[in-house]
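Technical appendix A lists one of the benchmark inputs used to test multi-chain prediction within the project. The record comprises two sequence entries:
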Amino acid sequence: MSEISELMWVEKYRPQKLQDVVNQRAIVERLSSIVKSPASMPHLLFAGPPGTGKTTCALALARTILGEPWRDYTLELNASDERGINTVRERVKTFARYATQRGINIPFRVIILDEADEMTNDAQTALRRIMEETSRFTRFVLICNYSSGIIEPIQSRCAVFRFSRLEEKDVVSYMTSICKKEKVRHTEEALSKIYELTGGDMRHAINLLQTSAFIGDVSIENVEKTAGISSRSKVSEIIDLSLKANFKEARNKLVVLTEVYGLSERDFLKYATEEIFKLGLPNAEHAAEALAKYDYRLIVGAHPEVQLAALLAELGRIGKDAGYRGSK
Amino acid sequence: MWVEKYRPASLAKLVGNEEARIGFLKWLRSWKPGGKAALLVGPPGIGKTATVHAAANELSYDVIELNASDARTKEKLQNALGPSIGNQALSGKPMILLDEVDGIFGRNDYGGMEFVMELMENTSVPLVMTANAQDSPKIGKIAYKAEVFRFQRLPPRLVELYLRSIIEKEHVKLDDESLQSIVLRSRGDVRSAVNDLQAAAFGLLEFEVEVPERDRMATINQAFQQLFDATNHVEALLALDSAPVDPKEKVRLVFASLVSSSLDIETRAEALEALSRADEIVGRIRRTQEWRQLRYLNTILAIGLFNAIQGKRLQFNADPVPWETKLRLWNEAKYFAQLGRTLGAILSISRKQFAEAYLPYFALILAKTEGGEKMLGRMGIDESTIKVIAKEGKKLLEALR
C-alpha cells in the first residue's frame, strides 16, 4: 500500500473482500457465486449512485479471482480521463497483449472501466467491438451511475448489478468503526450530519469525516465548518450570487471552480439543480426549464462556458422575478 | 458536399491504386454467371466504393448497393436483393455491392453471413464487397472464396495533386502551408482530405493566417465593434460577415465582450441566450459536418444579438476571463490537474471525481499531516505541484479559523 493510501482513510478502509462491502448483500451474494466458477463469468455492469461500493466490488472481485498478482492482470480505466475511444482501444490492446505473454494460470484479465455512461454512443459502439475482439482473454467490469446511459447492445452482453443508495445506519456504523480504529472523538449527531450532507455517498462521507477529525474532533460544528469548503457549498454560493443577479461575481467563481479546480460542468449542474430546488422559489418551474435547456445545450454546443454563463444570467432574471433576497 | 461533387465518375479520374483498379475492371469485364465474387480491402476513403461505381458505369451495370446500416439480417438482405437476383429481365444489368461488409457481421447478424456465403456460391449477377480490414475470421472466410483486390493509402503527393485540381475548379484561395497540413492530416484518406479542404474553404479549419497578427487583431476588433454599434440588422450582419475568424471563434469573441461589459441582467440574459443558440449551431456543425448550417449561423448570431442589446453599449474584448482569475488559471490549474491524475490512479478515481469529492479535503488533510509535503515528493510529484496544493491547504485552514 502506498503512503497516500495509508494517509487517506477512504482508501485505507476500503473493503478488501467482497464480504466486507457495506449493505449490498444481494449483490455480494451473486458476485460470490461468480467467484466460485470464474471461467463462466460474463462481462459485468455495475450501476448505481456514487460512493455505493461499485469500484470497491470490482477491485475485490479482481483480487479474489486473480489472486496475489491481481494488479498485473487488472486494468483500471476512467472513461472521462481517456482521450477518446481510440486511446481506450490502444490501452486495452496493449494490456491484453502484455498480459498474454506471461504464462501464469489465470482465467482472464480484468478491465474495469469507470464512468462508462460518460462515453458517447459512438464510442460505446466501438467499445462493444473491443469487448468482442478481446473477449477470449478479458472480462470487462463497466461502472456507471445510470444503466440507461449504456447502449442496449452492451447491456445485453453484461450481467447487470444495481447498487442501491446506502442507508444512514450502515454509513454511520462504518464511520463509527473507523473512528474507533483511528481513536477519534466523535458524536453520534455529527456522524448523522455527515450522512445528511453527503447523501449516502460513502467516499464523500469518509473524506468529510477525516477532514473534520484532522481539524479538531468530529463534532457537528466541525463537520459543518468542513462541509463549507466542499464543491457543493461553492456551487451553492454561485447559485445564490446568480439569483441575486450578481452575474460577474458568480461567473468569476464559476470559472475558478471549473477551470482552476477542474469540477466538471455536469457535476456543477447536478449540484446547482439540487441547491436551487432546496430554495423553494415561487417560480421554481422556470428555473427547472432553464436548467433543462442548458443541460441539453451543454452537450450539443461547442462552448460549455458559454452555456453555463447563459444559465447564470437567466437565473438572475428568474431571481429578480421571484424577488429573491439571498439564501441566508 | 465536395466529396459527392468530385466523386470520380470514370475509372480514369480516380487516383492511386492503379493495379487494384485495373485488376477489378478486368475481373468485372470477364465475369460470367457462377463466377467468383470480388472483395475490395483497404482503409477508408481511398476509392474502393468509387472504383466499383466507376467500373460499373463503364460497363453499364446498375449497382444495387447495400451497406452495414441498411441490412444485416438474412431476411433483410433477402428482401433487398431478392428481386434483382431472381428476375434479371426487370432490372436491366444489375450488380450487387455490399459496402463495408465488416459492419454487417456483428454478433447479431442473424444469418446474414450465411446468406452472403450462399450468395457467393451461386450468383446470377456480379457480387462485390468492400471491407476495411481482413483480420476478422468472417472476412477471412469471404476472402478465401473471393477474388481479392487490395487498396493502399495514397502517397501524400497524389493527395496533394488531387486537392490542387479541386482548388483550381472551386477558385479557392489556400496557401501552401495549409494545403500541406491538410494532406498530412489525411494520412492518405482522400475523402477526409476533401472534407478538410472544404472546411478550410469555409473557414472552419484553423490555420496560421499570414496576415501579421497585429493587423489581424485590428481588423477583428473593428468588425466586432461595428457589430455591437450597428443601427440595423443589415449593418450587424455585414459586420459579422466581415470578421476574419472561424465560427467557433466568433462565438468566443462575442462571449468575451458580453461577459466583460457592464449590462443590466435582462439585457445580458437575452444576449447570452442568443449566443447560446448560435453556439448550439456551431456544435452541430462540428459534430455532423453539416456545413450548410453555417449559412444560418451569422443571421442567428448577428440579429439575435442586435435585438438583445439594442441601444446598450457593448465594448469589444477578446478575453472572457478577468485578470486575477487568469493568474490563478496560469499558476494553479495545470498543477491541480496533474495531482488529480497521479492521485486518481492510486485512489481509483477519475480526475473529475478528484475535483468533485477530494480536492479541498485532501488539501486540508495534507496541511495537517506532518511530513505531508515530503511524502508527495517521494511519490514523484513535482515541486511546483506540491507548492500549489500546500498553499491551497493553508488557505483553507485560514478560512476555517
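The longest helix of chain B spans residues 323-347. The two ends of chain B are 64 Å apart (CA to CA). Comparable benchmark entries are summarised in Table A2.
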